[in-house]
Amino acid sequence: xxxxxxxxxxxxxxxxxxxxxxxxxxxxxxxxxxxxxxxxxxxxxxxxxxxxxxxxxxxxxxxxxxxxxxxxxxxxxxxxxxxxxxxxxxxxxxxxxxxxxxxxxxxxxxxxxxxxxxxxxxxxxxxxxxxxxxxxxxxxxxxxxxxxxxxxxxxxxxxxxxxxxxxxxxxxxxxxxxxxxxxxxxxxxxxxxxxxxxxxxxxxxxxxxxxxxxxxxxxxxxxxxxxxxxxxxxxxxxxxxxxxxxxxxxxxxxxxxxxxxxxxxxxxxxxxxxxxxxxxxxxxxxxxxxxxxxxxxxxxxxxxxxxxxxxxxxxxxxxxxxxxxxxxxxxxxxxxxx
Amino acid sequence: xxxxxxxxxxxxxxxxxxxxxxxxxxxxxxxxxxxxxxxxxxxxxxxxxxxxxxxxxxxxxxxxxxxxxxxxxxxxxxxxxxxxxxxxxxxxxxxxxxxxxxxxxxxxxxxxxxxxxxxxxxxxxxxxxxxxxxxxxxxxxxxxxxxxxxxxxxxxxxxxxxxxxxxxxxxxxxxxxxxxxxxxxxxxxxxxxxxxxxxxxxxxxxxxxxxxxxxxxxxxxxxxxxxxxxxxxxxxxxxxxxxxxxxxxxxxxxxxxxxxxxxxxxx
Lengths: 338, 267
Ligand code: SF4
Ligand code: SF4
Ligand code: SF4
Ligand code: SF4
Prior knowledge:
The complex is a heterodimer. Chain A is α+β, with helices and mostly antiparallel strands. Helices cover 30% and strands 23% of the residues of chain A. Chain A has one domain. In chain B, α3 packs across α4. Chain A binds chain B through residues 31-34, 36, 54-55, 64-65, 139-140, 228, 230-232, 234-238, 240-242, 250, 252, 254, 263, 265-266, 268, 271, 273, 286-288, 318, 320, 322-324, 326, 329, and chain B through 19, 26-28, 30-35, 53, 57-58, 61-64, 156, 158-162, 164-166, 178, 186-190, 214, 217-222.
């Protein structure tokens, strides 16, 4: 249903203003040395001239703390109160990067699988993504090696591409995107002819050929390539927490007196505690085994079971790894070796 | 082949070390920790201005520690980490050969821990100018402003524990945050959970921190979390005159009991 319109640079802030009259608007905001998706009330608050926010957009659908239900203990037992899905807000995220938006599809596959997660589903349904195509990239970006691109529309409801005049090409992609247009139809102009979106996109060279990636990863399972990773990776979990798709979680009960709530919190398969059994046995004993799991899950198990990969090539894990575990380099190496 | 490579190659050849922990070329002009287990890997070790990371945490890492004897390429931070670990009985003489590279670029091979102390005696530790600047800024704030600063920074904490994993002195096999019977610290990365986590960690590091800044470096959301333990280290220096990780014997400032202590809170 893709429709192409033009949104002038003057209209963009007006659009944000218009949307924020009825919904909460979020976008990349710079705070000291950190760029993260934050609530905004006007377009001036948006950060400019950066590659990608430090944290991904997954928190809109899979927040770092998710209350699942609350409970009260009384003399007859425990009374459980479900959370009220009606309280999940309608939100619009502006300036989400195409890789983060594409990551939503993978998250959806995870959370809709056996059984489907109503909280996640509702959050996703109530969030509108107005993507912004990338006009700059860095060496860590490798979306193109995994089928994505700096102008990929996947996961976005509207995708904006900034042109050299500062005006935007607006691709209206879904009914949620249409709804945004109907809020302020006058701001969107009709266009004629090809606006040559490609001209305004960053150049992200392909790092490797992914055609046989799954088999190659499987073939590497028992090789000694993971020995060096075992030594270097310190199991800090930064990679998993910044990743737009990593969805390992921990479940905790927070109790005060006779009341409490059960929460779902971000966790990481790279942490030794994640797989430690109460018996003391740990099926993924070494950091190498845990790092291998990270790769296997993203590039073998997820494609096998969910038909999506667990990675969109945003490069965050590698940018933020304190010991420079570079995932694109590892994939490339595994492809060459196997 | 530079001196580091020759020494690493020799130590591996003679069996004096099973692995040499050092630095190698990393992604896009950066450096990364590297591990030489054979001659070929020894040739790839590098040392230059970019090698500022404290590598001491690798000494006790489960995947490496069993390989002792180890050798380690060391800057001042790493030396201090090793001395501090020795003063906490995590390393003993003979476990590790330290290849300290001084400011002239000479490699000083220390086989005994006392030799590291001799190297450190020549050095006055300094923290990074940008850290000093932020500490001064925080010092100039009112307590309320400082509180607001930290609360706002900690809003961003996602409790990934990268700060802990990167720290050469966070070696507890079970961290206090992971104890759940009873649960001391809330697990969720909310205001109280984050605050309690960072206060606990800073207190546990006070008088032990070797001021390497690694915890802040590791933080994926750029919280200057290293300033908490570093500020405490400064306070301890001002009050007791001791600096952690310079001498094995002088290091236990906040955990030393003396029968003639002027405070009577213990007895
Ligand atoms: S960020 Fe790096 S060191 Fe930390 S767990 Fe991930 S790969 Fe390992
Ligand atoms: S695995 Fe790394 S590169 Fe891939 S999506 Fe996650 S953070 Fe991005
Ligand atoms: S600066 Fe941070 S990482 Fe370094 S010793 Fe102190 S607490 Fe640990
Ligand atoms: S590394 Fe940063 S985000 Fe992670 S727990 Fe430490 S302070 Fe929080």
